[in-house]
Structures are given as structure tokens and as C-alpha cells.
Specification:
The protein folds into two domains: about 180 residues, Ribonuclease H-like superfamily/Ribonuclease H (Nucleotidyltransferase, domain 5), CATH 3.30.420; about 55 residues, no CATH class. Helices cover about 40% and strands about 15% of the residues. The strands form two sheets. It has a six-stranded mixed sheet. A two-stranded antiparallel ribbon has the order 4-5. Helix 5 runs parallel beside helix 6 and helix 6 runs antiparallel to helix 7. The radius of gyration is 23 Å and the shape is elongated. The termini are close together. The structure holds magnesium ion. The site of magnesium ion has 5 residues, from strand 1 and helix 6.
Length: about 240
């Protein structure tokens, strides 16, 4: 079932409120969505120490980012003619429709707690979320920790993001790439399990295996074996 939806949000976090700046979603069936919140608190964002250089610089702008000489605050204009720049209510509706077009959707993000709040507050308090919107966002970090604890994954081997870090759609695409990489380690665990059962069977039965049984076991192992040498094929599997 291709029901995973990877997403990322950029936001202003005041310590009391999370204000959505932009959102990117990538569905497992290939649909993508990107929007910039026309109603974001742009003045407060311009005064932030980090957002203008790292997030605003990647948004559609009508001109370069300026700097006030005395305060160092940024000044910029969001390009409201860009079709990705939309009122918050429109983003709420379009995001809802995109998620609900997936049967039994499962939301995924990286360090997902703040993203979940930024997303679901589009519809108001948690209990106002449209029916069918999951009440939680799964965290890729939890998957990474689980696979590390199982001795399957070395975190240093995770795919690195080559471009667009802090652009919500680029980050959502990277979340998908990381998750498809993690998928392979569950395949590895399945293969290890099959191997263990084979060994148990051989140790438990001291009589020689007949040719039929050997062929069957070889076929079973071949089916379960993850193929780490053919990344392109794996990608194709995930379509
Ligand atoms: Mg991001």
C-alpha cells in the first residue's frame, strides 16, 4: 500500500506559537505539493536571527533581501504573483484534499513534532482536523533509532541532502529518500531471519537434506535476500 506522505514545514517558532511559513509534501504515489503562506507574520520573520538567510532566501521573492544598517533586520517582499504563494485557508483546503486522496494516509517527517503542529493548526485546534487526517506524524528519527538499536543501521551511512536544505519541498523529498533507504534494512532483517531459520533447520535435522529441500531453501533465501548492489532496481520498486 503506497500510503506514506513525507512532508516538511518551515515556520517561525516563538516559543509559544508556531507560525507556518511554507510547506512541502511528497506522496508515495508521486503527487507533490508546495505552498508559501501569504498570511505568515512577515515582519516578525524579517527580525528573526536565522530565518531570512536560511529560509526566506529560498522563497519566491520580488527582489533581493535588504538589511537595515542599524538593526540588521532583513527587508524583503514575498512575490505574491508566484502561484505557490497562497492564503493560509487555501493551503489548509489543498493540503487536506491532498492527504485525504490517499487511502489510510501515514504522515512522516524528520524531527516531526513541530511539523505536526504547523500542519494541523492549518485547521485550528487538534480536534478540528478534518476526519481522516492522522492525529500524529511519524518521526523518521524514531525509525533510525530503532534500526540502530537492532544493529542494522549505521547513521553515518544515511543519504545526505545535496541541495535545497530548508526549502520545504526539497526537505520533504529528502525525507522520502531517507525513508526508502531505511526500508532496505527491514529487508535485511527479514533475510537474517530467514537465514536463522535455515540454520536451525539444518542443525535440528542431522539427516542429509534431499535435493528437493535444498532447492526449496535456496529459492526461499533468494526471494528474501535484499539486493544492496542494485539501488536503481530498489528505487524502481518504490515507483
Ligand atoms: Mg525544512
Amino acid at each position: 500500500m503506497k500510503n506514506r506522505i513525507w512532508y516538511d514545514t518551515e515556520f517561525l517558532d516563538t516559543g509559544r506559537a508556531i507560525h507556518l511559513i511554507s510547506i512541502g509534501l511528497v506522496c508515495e504515489d508521486g503527487r507533490e505539493y508546495y505552498a508559501v503562506n501569504a498570511d505568515a507574520p512577515w515582519n516578525a520573520i524579517a527580525q528573526h536571527h536565522w530565518l531570512p538567510d536560511n529560509v526566506v532566501s529560498q522563497l519566491p521573492l520580488a527582489g533581493p533581501i535588504g538589511r537595515a544598517a542599524f538593526t540588521g533586520w532583513a527587508s524583503f517582499q514575498i512575490d505574491r504573483k508566484n502561484s505557490a504563494v497562497k492564503p493560509r485557508q487555501v493551503i489548509a483546503n489543498e493540503t487536506r484534499d491532498l492527504i485525504l486522496a490517499t487511502p489510510r494516509p501515514r504522515l512522516w517527517a524528520n524531527y516531526s513534532a513541530h511539523d505536526h503542529v504547523a500542519l494541523t493548526q492549518l485547521w485550528g485546534p487538534l480536534t478540528s482536523a478534518p476526519q481522516g487526517i492522522p492525529w500524529r506524524t511519524n518521526d523518521l528519527q524514531q525509525e533510525i533509532e530503532r534500526l540502530e538499536a537492532a544493529g542494522l543501521l549505521d547513521r553515518a551511512s544515511l543519504p545526505r541532502q545535496r541541495e535545497g536544505e530548508h526549502h520545504a519541498l526539497a526537505d520533504a523529498r529528502h525525507n522520502r529518500e531517507v525513508h526508502l533507504y531505511l526500508d532496505r534494512f527491514d529487508a535485511l532483517a527479514a533475510w537474517q531471519h530467514a537465514t536463522l531459520r535455515l540454520v536451525e533447520r539444518i542443525v535440528g535435522d542431522q539427516t542429509a537434506l534431499d535435493a528437493d529441500a535444498t532447492t526449496q531453501i535456496r529459492a526461499a533465501l533468494f526471494t528474501a535476500s535484499p539486493d544492496f548492489g542494485h539501488e536503481a532496481d530498489r528505487e524502481a520498486d518504490h515507483g
